[in-house]
Amino acid sequence: MFVLIFLASCREREMVTLPVLADYESAANGTVRKNLKIGLSPGPYGDMYLDLIQPLLAPLGYTAELIYYNDFIRPNLALAEGGVDLNMFQHYRYLNNFKMEHDLSLTAITEIPTASMGIFSRRFRTIGALRNGAVATIPDDSTNRSRALRVLDAAKIITLNPSIDMARADMGDIISNPLNIRFVQLEAQRLVESLGTNDFSVINGNFAISGGLNFSDALYVEALAESYYNVIAVRTEDLTEQFVRDIIAAVRSERYVSMVTEPGGKYAGFPRPRYFLGMTR
Question: What's the confidence (pLDDT) of residue 136?
């Protein structure tokens, strides 16, 4: 039994399927995997695992080994090849596209609080100050490029064709670019560095945070669409493993929610998954 969750955001709609505890009516049999290897990219999610999830799993005998990768590609390949047991760095849409493009059997098991994408600049303090012909850097992978274009559209820097599928927006879908912005596409992990030589950049939240950027200084902060919440992913063949059940139970627990939402806490400002609704006061 799987729960179908319908997501609607702006001009797009997507159906996302995530397991819930009801999918595990009896605990997995056999040896329980306790020494978990977690694949990550730079950003806040390694700390999030250690701060919020590991304390809930430790009493059950779990240990965590964090393995960092400097891009968005290797964490999924490592997961598929058995180098890590789960990863925690990407949003649902990126995972879904990546696994289809590379023919990988990976599954998202739960959403987590997620840092938004933002528009940052070291040369301009407001969008209104952007000059004609400014150079902007955006991610070069298709899913995050589409996301960045949607952020620029929402910030009214460009206008996208309203008749397209916004989930697949690309450069050719820009119908208005009044400032004649020139776009440079770079690997997501290079976007913070690019601020030194370009006018502004649209940067994924994890790389913005790991690069020392402050969202209070951003020219614009994305209103996060549900399909861009980050997820914990595992190999599909491991969905019946006890550690998957225990992770889902941990992140759906009242203690986890209370730690995330603690006023003034490290993650209090992160947009929150849908399941938080009804669990917070």
Answer: 98
